């Protein structure tokens, strides 16, 4: 596990977390302890509850039962030290790039800070542009700059690379890993891509029907090579996801035989 001694990240402690919408139980008994500075990836089938978990951690929604504590403070709403990134960049089209990033910090913050974070995502020269003229990858980098300009202790990523082409995606993965490595904010990345999870995370969590079904440490050195050890972790996680499918298929067959 790679957690820096100088970690800036928050320590998250989730206990007995349940979330229901009407009579649908979306999260059931989730317990999770995430040390400061850890990079966690959350994988699982569509609809298993990944975004719901992230929204609860962000304080955008409230648990039905259980608790979420961030550095020993109960999460009761959105907080300054937490930032979230979504699949679409959500930039304001009527503000230029620099002003979009500035939204991430308190009024009165110096311009140098905004330009510095733009430099870190490699887009300082786009400071005066409108979001509309940027590519999808560039827009996501601006959204990342806006999220990081306030130096958050917790970064929540809900499939931020899902809409990008393969090469841009790899560039973005490298950028996220580099910035995390420098600053050590606690990170939770939701992704459908098992390979991306193994490439970036210290720990991968698989959610199945609102419950944690797998929680494994990725003990590979960084930067990660896509070698046999990498493939071992990928297969381990994929097999566990597919196991459920086989199981369901079998029980469906048994059901049809018994009819
Ligand atoms: N605000 C809401 N009201 C009612 N049901 C909701 C709400 N938010 C989520 N759900 C339901 O909770 C379940 C889990 O949704 P969630 O968005 O967490 O899934 P997910 O794992 O992120 O899926 P995906 O991979 O497709 O993004 C779904 O059945 C969804 O319809
Ligand atoms: Mg989702």
TrEMBL record:
Entry-linked InterPro entries: AAA+_ATPase, ABC_transporter-like_ATP-bd, ABC_transporter-like_CS, ABC_transporter_ATP-bind, P-loop_NTPase
Transmembrane segments: none
PROSITE patterns named among the record's database cross-references: ABC_TRANSPORTER_1, ABC_TRANSPORTER_2
Molecular-function GO term, any one: ATP hydrolysis activity
Keywords: ATP-binding, Cell membrane, Membrane, Nucleotide-binding, Translocase, Transport
Domain ABC transporter: 12-234
Name of a matching Pfam family: ABC_tran
Name listed for the protein in its UniProt record: ATP-binding cassette domain-containing protein
Native species: Cohnella faecalis
């Amino acid at each position: 596990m790679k957690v820096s001694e100088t970690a800036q990240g928050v320590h998250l402690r989730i206990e007995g977390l349940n979330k229901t919408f009407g009579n649908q139980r979306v999260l059931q008994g989730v317990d999770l302890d995430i040390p400061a500075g850890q990079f966690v990836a959350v994988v699982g089938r569509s609809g298993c509850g990944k975004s719901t978990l992230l929204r609860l951690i962000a304080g955008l929604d409230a648990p039905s039962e259980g608790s979420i504590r961030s550095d020993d403070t109960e999460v009761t709403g959105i907080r300054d030290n937490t930032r979230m990134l979504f699949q679409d960049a959500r930039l304001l089209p009527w503000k230029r790039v620099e002003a979009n990033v500035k939204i991430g910090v308190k009024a009165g913050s110096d311009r140098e800070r905004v330009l510095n974070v733009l430099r870190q995502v490699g887009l300082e020269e786009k400071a005066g542009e409108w979001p509309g003229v940027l590519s999808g990858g560039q827009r996501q980098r601006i959204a990342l700059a806006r999220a990081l300009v306030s130096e958050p202790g917790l970064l929540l990523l809900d499939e931020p690379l899902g809409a990008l082409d393969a090469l841009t995606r790899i560039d973005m993965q490298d950028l996220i890993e580099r910035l995390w490595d420098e600053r050590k904010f606690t990170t939770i990345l939701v992704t459908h891509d098992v390979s991306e999870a193994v490439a970036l995370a210290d720990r991968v969590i698989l959610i199945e029907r609102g419950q944690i079904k797998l929680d494994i440490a990725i003990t590979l050195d960084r930067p990660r090579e896509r070698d046999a050890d990498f493939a071992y972790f990928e297969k381990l996680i994929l097999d566990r996801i597919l196991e459920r499918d086989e199981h369901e298929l079998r029980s469906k067959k048994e059901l049809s035989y018994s009819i």
